[in-house]
Specification:
Elements: H1 3-7, H2 16-33, E1 34-40, E2 43-48, H3 53-66, E3 71-76, E4 81-86, H4 95-99
Length: about 120
């Protein structure tokens, strides 16, 4: 994990409407192409169908902009694209809410998991 990620504040930069739109987009992506989910403490691994690689890359780029405190690692394989998302120790209390949308859990806009900034 990079030092910059460790130092980034635990705060989402999306406003409430953008947050809702993003969560709906992620939910749709996951419903279409998410193959498996594994969680190990502060690390979440998501296996996507390789056909969805462009969408997964877009999701990573968007999430890196609004949630700089999370670390994203994308590994491309022949049969699967695995996205590993790691939260810093400082986000431990919010990890369940942070990882929820990526695991297909429905959250309210006020449950974004960050400590402020999204305006939800």
């Amino acid at each position: 994990m990079s030092g910059m990620t460790d130092m980034a504040p635990i705060a989402c930069t999306l406003d409430g409407g953008s947050f809702k739109t993003r969560m709906a987009w992620i939910a749709d992506l996951n419903a279409r192409v998410l193959k498996a989910v594994r969680r190990n403490d502060l690390r979440l691994e998501l296996d996507y169908a390789p056909s969805a690689l462009a969408d997964v890359r877009l999701m990573v780029a968007q999430e890196q902009e609004c949630c700089a405190f999370l670390n994203f690692e994308l590994t491309e394989g022949e049969d699967v694209a695995t996205l590993a998302i790691t939260a810093p120790e400082t986000a431990r209390d919010a990890a369940e809410a942070l990882f929820g949308p990526f695991q297909g859990k429905t959250l309210q806009a006020t449950d974004c998991g960050c400590t402020g900034g999204c305006g939800a």
